[in-house]
Specification:
Helix content: 40-55%
Strand order of the largest sheet: 1-2-3-4-5-6-7-8
Mean pLDDT: 97
Number of helices: 10
Distance between the termini: 38 Å
Number of domains: 1
CATH superfamily: Aldolase class I
CATH topology: TIM Barrel
Low-confidence stretches: none
CATH class: Alpha Beta
Number of strands: 8
Order of helices and strands: EHEHEHEHEEHEHEHHHH
CATH architecture: Alpha-Beta Barrel
Amino acid sequence: MSSTVFTGVGVALVTLFSEDGALDAPATADLAVQLVELGVRAVVVAGTTGEAVTLNRDERVELLAAVRTVLPSNVPVLAGTGAASTQEAVAYTRDAVANGAAGVLALTPPGSPGLPEYYEAITTAAGGLPVLGYHYPAVSSPGIPVDMLASLSIDGLKDSTGDPGRLLEELASFKRPIYTGSSALLALAGPLGCAGAILSLANVDPRRCAQAFAGDVIAQRALTGAHVAGHHRFPKGLKELVAARFGTSTVTRVG
């Protein structure tokens, strides 16, 4: 397995769209720059928060290339490449490798059929770049059983369930980097040994997210309002929070 792709708080970057719904890759890249300047350690494009299900293959490439071009070389940019079929996931992964991704984040397919074969194919397509499995049954059920994790050809895991019991099981049994996707568990996840976090809320308040991940329970409590608001009418509610801070578009394709 490859080494840890990053540690600390990364952002699950929103994808910005113009008023007519067209991809605005330059504006998205500009937001990524601002977030890195505020302390974000890595950027994930075309993930769940980035409304990946609405992005076609060309748009994914354009988005990744735009973000990678404007960020310092020491800031990893990961691409979401999970898909409903292994064939699609492999194609997205190959595109990510060809356009400068530092690794890929692969959501399980709906129904989670043939997970060992699915991740093996993605790992082969990644050509040595880190592959993070992605457990988020609220979006793609049922996800990855804890007892299957160690047998999969993945370099680490993002878990967005927000389930503290599940996180404890993963930390006890899966000896590869684990990233929480829940801004509600930061003050637990960091001190217990998670490698990092990949957060939608890092689009809004990356500094406080980093403080909470470092174990600051006051910062964790202070994130409550934004955590709740960001999940309301997701991703619209989140984009409204981002717009209030950075003046970005609130246009969504999802919802």
